[in-house]
Design a protein that fits this description.
The structure is a homohexamer.
Chain A (H helix, E strand, L loop, with lengths): L14 E5 L7 E7 L2 E11 L12 E8 L11 H4 L4 H15 L4 H4 L2 E11 L4 H22 L14 E9 L2 E4 L3 H6 E10 L4 E8 L6 H27 L4
Parallel strand pairs in A: 4-5
Antiparallel strand pairs in A: 1-2, 2-3, 3-5, 6-7, 6-8, 8-9
Helix pairs in contact in A: 2-4, 4-6
Chain lengths: 244, 244, 244, 244, 244, 244
């Protein structure tokens, strides 16, 4: 079976990680997974929230949002509705947890980094693109702080890389990195977050139509681990290049 | 290794499913997983939300909440804060998806069932207890509606049972059905929702401390599938008894 | 005239005050006035709100809420609507004032007790059951604090007991402790809060249909004072028993 | 004992009811009880809320609010805080109930009257001044509608007058119509709403310090009934004069 | 062309500035521009917002609001809607900026003055009446503080007077101080705020229908500057009179 | 005097108008005024808001927002705060009015176009860049609708072009198109919106420090009119090019 955009089942969409997109943020990346584009900025500030003061440890958090016309049909702004929806909350929490999994709070010291992931254009996989891009922005913000001695010399706040990808069963076939059209037709949809060494940070699988069995789950996990490996390579390549 | 409450690693806490707890609701269950107690009510109403009118299909949704002093330290009410937190949103959505996985909307007809899961006392596993109890309340509401001919004769809106359990790795050991003290010490925490035939509806695993590998994931899934089987048996037993 | 449930006009519904219902709260009571069931928890914390710091005096406050399916028809959650309704506000304020009427702030010291009264099932008289049950939870929380020396030895923060009951004129007859069906048919509805010595803390009478005259008011007050006396006896009996 | 402003215990403050204060409203009164000044407007609209359509019956409701500097210390605006406080809710509900007590919904027909009571300057008794003034504005709005044949000929939507006054025990003495300084020193504070024929619509007594006994309650009720009688006379006098 | 109320094009409506309207506020003015009536109160408090502490400088801010029935049709309260509308925000900000233009923060010292402008009756020009009246209330609050030595002797916190007026092109003719009926028919609507020396603090011109050209703009500015001059004279006259 | 970035006083920053930036929107432009970058999307939908139904006329509205890290210091999200700030409201309203000034509602027919202007990076002049870019997105959405016959043949909904620019007095000199550093140092700040024929849609001048006189106002208007002319040329050039 050939995919809607001609990819092989285990193939990612074209990935780009454009560093230094914003002149203000300490780290910023415009990440693209095919037509999905997310602007990820990392804001570094000295100090931590009150509940963490005096601990010697830092904090990392994330906020996800979507521009109203990032999607095919315009959605209402959450600021206009006056409340953040459940989906937004859920994804913001997932991004935050994923990035904290590779943070050594002691090494970060009493500093805070906020990751803002704003979806400029959506075509499936916005949360996985956000995590993958946010990691690069986070790494740049850490470098920025190290350059200004805001992090102690010799400390390495990042313990590994982290990336994420979606997988799903569409028309009976396990596929990697679903675009929107595949996503809406998927029986099962799974988001997997892995560290650079191939271990799991998050596994979130949902039966959209039929429940799935252990064999299907295993096939999806195989695809996802390989995909996260490819994304980790893309992250390393981006970080080795010179930011413009 | 012995557990804090003396259970074997693969052992559930004592489970009870007290049907007919509320005189007003069409279905109601006070579910207990050890000291975790959740009041689940199912409210049946004829008609569906506007976006579903004329489809001939029903709708099922859920809301989860916690009383302020269900936990060891009193939490602020979300009604007083004026907004629902991300965790509440996330769990409400999980419960709704889990129950919809066993609903045949056509058989339900244009009727709506709302599941309210209010945690009266929390000791870990509130969301899995809520799903397990809500299924029983849902089944009772369906029977109630069948008794009143609000669902067409011969239609079976429930395609299977559904239950849920938490698993986690604590001190290196995979454990079933974590109580609160185990939960806070877990390196990895996973919630698994299964249908009665042993397939997956949701798999949500999170590395709280160290990332987890494939072998650990497999051990957790084995535990969870067995635990959900035990819970399905408890659900069947409760439904075969006569509600008071 | 016989009442809908066979009671005499001056007769309370069966009252129960189950102490120690919650394992977390410093005081907790599941109170029932017939089919009305309210879970009352008392949360004791050291310290007082900012405006009271340094005064040497404590504080007591209350929050009332109703589960969505406590009533015959499901109500929207106030947390979902994003605002607390006027009725909820009004009852929370009434409960707080009623309990503060028997508190000696100096004797309590700079400690705060929050009473949460959550209606699990409603059948009329939820506010009066809440006050009556909350008093017992409050007394248990005070004892708990005395046992831990959080209140100075010899201090008695409670100056008296406090209980509450509804009365009303239904079909021309003054009745004590209205159930829901009586309440909706009442011409006049009154809630009365009394201390153990029979004095008034609150008198709130409302003409639902016809205005009422002085004679009717007097008949209602007579009923209410007697009913509060019976409730005070039930409170004393519950507190003399050993909490489970 | 002489009162702070030299009044006798059973004496009202100077009362004025200035009709026609607003050029836009169908009825409007600037009511003063001493230094307490409340602008009451009655807005008449054809039609009723959805839940009342087709009933042939009208609806009357009220909203109370206070300007930020109506009081000695500036209060935050509820619009700025984004939520209405419990006190505001409670008073709005009281005013609405009080005026509905003298409305014949059938005679009003399917029309709605909204009473807005905005406190321009507060010196105690704002809710009782609001009820007393709102009645006159309501009467003017009814006349306006009768003049335009929006209410059927021969129908009398008002069944009686309604007025309200505060009473309290200050320094052991029962006093009528408390000003702010008396109010803060009162042991017991009661608001009483009476129809023109001297019957009760609302009786709301609260022990601010010491509980009160039956004898004190009776003394307060005597004072209040007489005071409401004086206010009813003032209302009639105002309505007999020609509105400017 | 004669205007709807018989005025000449360059003529203000009757202006009144009644000082001392409120007994609580440090400065208060009931300002009328024809049938537009705005109650302006100035609340003086020692101290400044946190972000300004230690600067030695004061702060002045403003809030604008409209009573629900100030207009011909009743509007919903912003407190009931739970959010402040864009128009209210915009006008509050304009009033604050306008008054700060004549404040010497150093001379004011670390004190805060809040101007509340509540529209009691609206007939066009509510924001310009509010600015003009608020200046007088502000001046009174400054005098009050000087009288109590809360402002250092010899300091003059007010550097000039400030007033405002609306102008517009109606039926091709430039007109001063539009009433509501003129305002709705205007092609161009402009609000101009001037200091007493005739310079501009704000110029806000909007093409409601046709864009306007430079010549029309100049004609409107000529009218506005003259009108502000007349208002400045009225402000001086009011402040020279003895407040009641 | 030379400007911070070397421009002449009457010189715009480099302007770019990248059409077709979004694959979903009916019109989309990434506009840059120097380092200020705003993503403008135009969403075309058939139908109009309820209050306009049956009029045969269309509607155009706008929403402005800023990403949290568009600025040098991260700002809180308005969706997280739960309310839209006054500045956001004010700018959204300005953009909407400006674009409606060149719309022929009859020619548009009963269709709605929503302009979303999201500031990705801010360096002064975000509202003027938004208006200038939104016009181009609007023109593309109109062409899109004409191509699909959603607008009747021969109808021209756009009556002219519209563009906007900021001007200000910095260090005594009138300057065109202020960047952020100039903006914070400006004594007077003015935003001017012009149609393609050089007439005014909006003139909003504010004295940030010293009030300004007529001569300064005239100098600013001269600069702004010329600047808007240059922007109108850039808009025409962009629209004549083929969108990618």
């Amino acid at each position: 079976m050939s995919r809607i955009d001609g990819r092989a089942p285990e193939q990612l969409r074209p990935v780009s990680l454009a560093r230094g997109w914003s002149k203000h943020a300490e780290g910023s990346v415009l990440v693209a997974f095919g037509d999905t584009r997310v602007l990820c900025t990392a804001s570094f500030t000295e100090g931590v929230p009150r509940w963490r003061k005096g601990s010697g440890e830092g904090w990392v958090t994330a906020e996800y949002s979507m521009l109203p016309r990032a999607t095919n049909t315009r959605g209402d702004r959450e600021s206009v509705r006056g409340r953040i929806g459940g989906r937004t909350h859920e994804i913001s929490r997932l991004i935050g947890r994923s990035l904290r999994a590779v943070i050594d709070y002691k090494a970060l010291g009493e500093n805070t980094i906020v990751l803002d992931c704003d979806v400029l254009q959506a075509d499936g996989g916005t949360r996985t693109a956000a995590i993958t891009g946010a990691y690069v922005a986070l790494a740049d913000a850490v470098s920025w702080a190290q350059g200004r001695k805001l992090i102690k010399a010799g400390r390495r706040p990042l313990t590994d890389t982290v990336s994420a990808v979606s997988v799903g069963i569409v028309g009976g076939a396990p596929l990697l990195d679903l675009c929107y059209e595949e996503d809406v037709r998927a029986d099962t949809d799974m988001n997997v977050v892995c560290t650079g060494d191939g271990r799991f940070v998050e596994v979130q699988g949902t039966a959209e139509a039929e429940p799935f069995d252990r064999k299907e789950l295993n096939a999806l996990l195989d695809l996802a681990v390989a995909g996260c490996g490819d994304l980790a390579a893309a992250q390393r390549a981006a970080l080795e290049a010179t930011a413009d």
